[in-house]
Amino acid sequence: MRLRLVPADARPGPATDDLSTEPADELLDELLDLALRVAREAAALVRTRREEGVQVAATKSSITDVVTQADRDSEELIRTRVLSARPGDGLLGEEGSDSTGTTGVRWVVDPIDGTVNYLHGLDQYAVSIGVEVDGRVQVGVVLNAATGDEFTAVRGRGAHRNGRPIRAAARVALEHAVVATGYNYELPIRARQAQAVASLVVRIADVRRLGSCALDLCAVAAGQLDGYVEEGCNPWDYAAGGLVAEEAGAVVEILTGASGRRLVVAAPGPSYAEFLGLVTSCGFTAHGA
C-alpha cells in the first residue's frame, strides 16, 4: 500500500487545477467550526477525568495497549455532538464507532491519542478529529488536552497553531536531523522496529519517542521535528495530524512497513526524498514499498 499526500505549496497541479469538485468554502468553514468546538469540549472532559484520577478500563492488542473510561466517554461525546449537528455524516472512531453516513462526510476520531501518556500524567495526549469529504481529509483539528495547544488545518488554506500560521522546517542534513518514532504494542513488531531505530539513530542527530502520532505530525508541521516514522498507525491516528503537516509544507506518505502494517513517513518537503531513502535503508519499510 502506498498513499502519497502532497504538501500544500505543491498545489495547484494537474490533479487539482479543476476545483469544480472541491468542497464549498461554506461547508469547510462549518466543518472546521464544529470540529474545533467539539474537540475543545472533549479535551475539557479528558482533562477533568485526569484530575479525578485515571484507571485502565480494558486492554486491546496487548497488555500495554490500554483503554481508559475517558477514551470511551470522549469518543461518545464527540459522536453525540457531531451527529446531533450533522445527523447524515459518517464517523469512524478508535473506540468502536463506525458508521458510513449519507452525506459524503466522515469524521475520523481519536478521542485520546496518547492514552499511555495520559495514564501516566505525561503531557503528550490529544483529541484528534479529521474530517473527510468524499474520501479525502479536508479538515483537521489536533488539540493537546494537557497544554491546550490547538493545531488546525483546512486543505488549501495552510496550517495553524493557536490561530497562527506554522511551517515545516527548511531542509536539514540528515546528520543534523531530529526524528520522532513510535513502537507498536505487539512485541514481534516492536522488536523489528527497535532494530530499525538502532540503525537510524547512528545516522541522524537524535531520536524522540513522544507517544502520540497526531502530535508528532503536528511537531513536524511546526518545524520542531525534522521527520517522523512509525509502523502500526491507524487512520484515526494520522488523519488530522497528517493534514496539518501537509498544509505546513511537509510530505506525508502511508506505506507498508516491515511487519506489513501501515507505516507513516513524514518530513518537510525539501528533505522528504532523502529521509524516505534513509528509513528504507534502515529497515522500516516492506521490501519494495
Note the main attributes of this structure.
single chain, alpha+beta, Fructose-1,6-Bisphosphatase, Chain A, domain 1, 2 domains, eight-stranded mixed beta sheet, 34% helix, globular
Under CATH, the topology of the largest domain can be stated as Fructose-1,6-Bisphosphatase, Chain A, domain 1
Cα separation of the termini: 7 Å
CATH superfamily of the largest domain: Fructose-1,6-Bisphosphatase, subunit A, domain 1
Largest sheet, in brief, is: 8 strands, mixed
State the secondary-structure class.
alpha+beta
If helices are DSSP runs of H or I spanning 4 or more residues, what is the number of helices? 7
Architecture of the largest domain in CATH?
Answer: 2-Layer Sandwich
In N-to-C order, the SSE pattern is EHEEHEEEHEEEEEEHEHEHEEH
Q: Give the CATH level 1 class of the largest domain.
A: Alpha Beta
Relative strand content:
25-35%
Number of domains: 2
Helix content: 25-40%
User: Per the principal axes of the C-alpha atoms, what is the gross shape?
Assistant: globular
Which regions have little confidence, pLDDT < 50, spanning 5+ residues?
6-19
Give Rg in angstroms. 18 Å
The side-by-side strand order for the widest beta sheet comes to 5-4-6-7-8-9-10-11
On the 0-100 scale, what is the average pLDDT?
89
**What's the β-strand tally?**
16
Protein name: Inositol-1-monophosphatase
GO molecular function, one term: metal ion binding
Pathway: Amino-acid biosynthesis; L-histidine biosynthesis; L-histidine from 5-phospho-alpha-D-ribose 1-diphosphate: step 8/9
Keywords: Hydrolase, Magnesium, Metal-binding
